[in-house]
Design brief:
70 residues, single chain, alpha+beta, 4-stranded antiparallel β-sheet, SH3 type barrels
Length: 70
C-alpha cells in the first residue's frame, strides 16, 4: 500500500484505504474516492494531481492525495 502521490501518470490503481478525519473522508467520498474505486492519475505538477475517478476528473492537492492509499 502506498499513497496516491506515488502513482505514475497513466497508472490505474484501486483505492485500498482513506485516512484522515471524518470530515476529510466524507468529502473525498462525495467526490467518488471510496475503497474499491478505480483511479487513474491523469497528470501531476509539483505533487498536485489530476485524477480520473469514475467518470470525472478531480484535482487534488498533495495533502489530500497523500490520504488516499492505493
Amino acid at each position: 500500500m502506498m499513497p496516491l502521490t506515488m502513482a505514475k501518470t497513466g497508472e490505474r490503481a484501486e483505492i485500498q484505504k482513506i485516512t484522515g478525519r471524518d470530515e476529510v473522508r466524507q468529502r473525498l467520498a462525495e467526490l467518488g474516492f471510496v475503497v474499491g474505486a478505480q483511479v487513474c492519475v491523469v497528470s501531476e505538477v509539483a505533487g498536485n494531481l489530476i485524477v480520473q475517478v469514475k467518470d470525472s476528473r478531480v484535482a487534488l492537492d498533495k495533502g489530500m492525495a497523500n490520504r488516499i492509499m492505493i
